[in-house]
Specification:
Blueprint lengths: L2 E3 L6 E3 L3 E2 L13 H13 L4 E3 L8 H13 L4 E6 L1 E3 L5 E4 L3 H15 L4 E6 L8 H13 L3 E7 L3 H8 L4 E7 L11 H8 L2 E5 L23 H4 L5 H12 L2 H7 L3 H10 L5 E3 L6 H8 L8 H10 L12 H4 L5
Parallel strand pairs: 3-4, 4-5, 5-8, 8-9, 9-10, 10-11, 11-12
Antiparallel strand pairs: 1-2, 6-7
Helix pairs in contact: 1-2, 1-11, 3-4, 5-6
Bound molecules: NADP nicotinamide-adenine-dinucleotide phosphate (NAP).
The site of NADP nicotinamide-adenine-dinucleotide phosphate has 29 residues, from helix 11.
């Protein structure tokens, strides 16, 4: 697989990364360690070198799931993790922290769970508006000075926050949701990233599964799946409407002899080499399906037809339930 620069960090990453979140939590049952290792090794063997996790995924378990893999492959992969989203003792989401003292503690805990000396890309998962961005990015910059972090990223911030952060320390990448169904970053935010040479890491590039056609009704979701309560796009009514929308891509996929997932990922890749999608899956066959998107070429006519089939803002329902939605664009 081709590699692309991660902003101006000097790091080179595969044009498709791997989102590890689902291995631990949120989308049904967690994977056992053996299965997780198989999947991570397969991703690596198929050319993926960019792996995404966060301390909040599985309350630290997702980082631990990666530690054996990192031991085997440390020199050959770029590992990204995140801090800021708090959980209480029962695992319930418990607000945000960007407090410098907290950031230092969270970084040490992530290093320990991952079993590495340095995090390649350390993201602020969400901005906590009560802490000046200068203070939080200042603390992240000290982690770079201390050799604990190589490059800094932000997630779901506003263009103004990005500009302010860049004055304190170079920002290598911003991670936000981006897919054919979620295009609100296109108007201002992605141009702002381009102006500063910041990579845009596209999370939930398959619309949390919606864009694959694999989830068609409530029974397609596993036990304890977060989406139906946490993402209004998956409420019964919205799901029915959104599936009809995604079905419109079927004809294009058939013509290209591609899966819907490949069309969704190839659409992002065609937007530019600074857009780096990080799809996630717990299944080996789906991993291979997704990675083949790197060789699914879409021309300008294909892109126009896809965007005509799913117009901007056509998706039904907000991305998150109100409390989480209010932390976006911060
Ligand atoms: N910064 C943030 O706030 C944030 C938020 C969310 C996610 N993320 C990151 O982004 C990564 C990816 O996003 P995501 O996991 O939310 O969503 P996604 O990659 O858009 O979709 C994942 C879902 O699609 C299914 N799927 C994947 N490939 C498939 C295929 N080829 N055919 C059919 N179904 C397929 C998966 O099910 P199976 O596992 O059963 O295959 C899973 O339910 C996460 O792992 C995480 O690292 C970051």
């Amino acid at each position: 697989m081709r590699t692309v620069p991660l902003g101006k960090s000097g790091l080179q990453v595969s044009q498709l990364g791997f989102g590890c979140m689902g291995l631990a939590e949120f989308y049904g049952e967690a994977l056992g360690q053996e299965e997780a290792d198989k999947l991570l090794d397969a991703a690596f063997e198929h050319g993926v070198n960019f792996f995404d996790t966060a301390d909040v995924y599985g309350c630290g378990r997702n980082e631990e799931q990666l530690s054996g893999f990192l031991k085997r492959r440390r020199r050959d992969v770029v590992i990204a993790t995140k801090f800021a989203i708090l959980r209480d003792d029962n695992g319930a989401l418990a607000g945000l922290s960007n407090d410098p003292k907290y950031i230092r503690k969270a970084c040490d805990a992530s290093l320990k769970r991952l079993g590495v000396d340095e995090i390649d890309l350390y993201y602020m998962h969400r901005r906590d508006r009560s802490v000046p961005i200068e203070d939080s990015v200042g603390a992240m910059s000290e982690l770079v000075d201390a050799g604990k972090v190589r490059a800094i990223g932000l997630s779901e911030v506003s263009a103004d926050t990005l500009q302010a952060a860049m004055k304190i320390h170079p920002i290598a990448a911003v991670q936000s949701e981006y897919s054919i169904l979620t295009r609100e970053m296109e108007a201002e935010f992605i141009p702002a990233c381009r102006e500063h040479g910041v990579a845009f890491v596209a999370y939930s590039p398959l619309g949390r599964g919606l864009l694959t056609g694999a989830f068609r009704n409530a029974s397609d979701f596993g036990k304890d799946d977060y989406r139906m309560a946490g993402n209004p796009r998956f409420s019964e009514e919205a799901l029915a409407a959104n599936i009809k929308l995604v079905d419109r891509l079927g004809a294009i996929a058939k013509e290209k002899d591609a899966s819907l997932a490949q069309i969704a990922l190839a659409w992002l890749l065609a937007k530019g080499e600074d857009i780096i999608p990080i799809p996630g899956t717990k299944k080996l066959n789906r991993l291979k399906d997704n990675l083949a998107a790197a060789s699914t070429d879409l021309n300008a006519d294909d892109m126009a037809r896809i965007e005509e089939a799913i117009p901007e803002d056509a998706v039904e329902g907000e991305r998150y339930a109100p409390a989480a939605q209010s932390t976006l664009n911060a």
